[in-house]
Amino acid sequence: MGPPFSQRFPALAPLRGGDLLSSADLSAEETLALLDLAAEFKRGSLHLDLSGKALGLIFTKASTRTRVSFSVAMGRLGGQVLDLNPSVTQVGRGEPVADTARVLSRYVDALAIRTFEQRELADYAHWASVPVINALTDLEHPCQALADLLTIRENFGDLRGLTLTYVGDGNNMAHSLMLSGALLGMHVRVACPEGFCPDPAVLDQARKLAGRAATISVLHEPVPAVRDAEVLYTDVWASMGQEQEQQQRLQAFAGFCVDEALLAEADPRAIVLHCLPAHRGEEISAGVIEGSASRVFDQAENRLHVQQALLAALLADPNTPCS
Ligand code: CP
Ligand code: NVA
Hints:
Distance between the termini: 6 Å
Helix content: 25-40%
CATH topology of the largest domain: Rossmann fold
Number of strands: 9
Bound molecules: phosphoric acid mono(formamide)ester, norvaline
Number of helices: 13
Largest sheet: 5 strands, parallel
CATH architecture of the largest domain: 3-Layer(aba) Sandwich
Radius of gyration: 19 Å
Strand content: 5-15%
Structural class: alpha/beta
Number of domains: 2
Order of helices and strands: HHEHEHEHEHEHEHEHEHHEHH
CATH class of the largest domain: Alpha Beta
């Protein structure tokens, strides 16, 4: 029998029973402690028992990584996962969030929700009496950003002072990376075409979080934006729900592909990340995603470890022994 969870990871105590709706819901200290815990789970050096706990997944959009990694993470902790897909529950027939959230809170210990509007996620969090986790909205993807930070830390050690250039659409991924990067003292540059910038409110929030330690910038020229960057990141040009804009976006994003020529402008040690799914030949070239700088499959694996850490932080009883 090892020490209690609360003694091993005191920085995570404030997260117990709370929600994760935004990357900015975590402090820098909590984010780093989650990464430490994730790294321990990844090494296999920590065992924690959440048997008897249940996680509900309410996913209004498609998912491979998030759905499977949450399911396996909960399984590794001894807990249970229920797929509450709107097509098989009354959610799809319009049962109000206020009722669904209160009912499900009587059955499950946490809800991971993937939906369109951040406001709907906030509604779930308002009505639920159990932790609500953002499993992707149009505004943010905080679980992905945690996996990205773990991957960057595995490659560079300290995150502080690193430059991450996100090339592409100023979308949910860009937002969570700006917020997490700002918290952790990273320089985040978003290179996007005019008209596809990050949400000004998120940009403002990230700049406030960054203080003097980090810089958050938006540029419209990919080459100067990636110069000397240690991390290049990209994501699809048309996110889920924007499929009808696909053709128009292909034209608007011409020149914003992370290809060999763009990678050559970055720091020689640069790594390339993509949250996946990827469109080869659009936002990333086949050569780069399959090349030596790519860490996309480590990054995808890390979803499992950070979410195991997150579930432990939100759900573990402080006296649960760690072994
Ligand atoms: N990166 C990510 O969230 O992938 P899925 O859409 O497959 O969950
Ligand atoms: N920006 C993408 C991320 C997918 C993981 C989307 O929202 O579809």
